[in-house]
Amino acid sequence: MSTLLPERANAEYLRKQSKELRREFAHGDAGAMARIRQYLPRAMQFDDDQLRQMDLTLQEAQHALACEYG
Fold this sequence. Notes:
single chain, globular, mainly alpha
């Protein structure tokens, strides 16, 4: 299921969202980890401990958001 983009979304808005997702993931947020696991092929193979140790790049966070928005 896709998430709807806000009416006035722009590149800066999406960049900030990506940085926030990356920060939440780094802090072990369960929701962020589930989102990354759902949309990143390399993360799908990891168990929870391996996922927590994964270094998530900004590009990967942007990819996950793009997948969410369809």
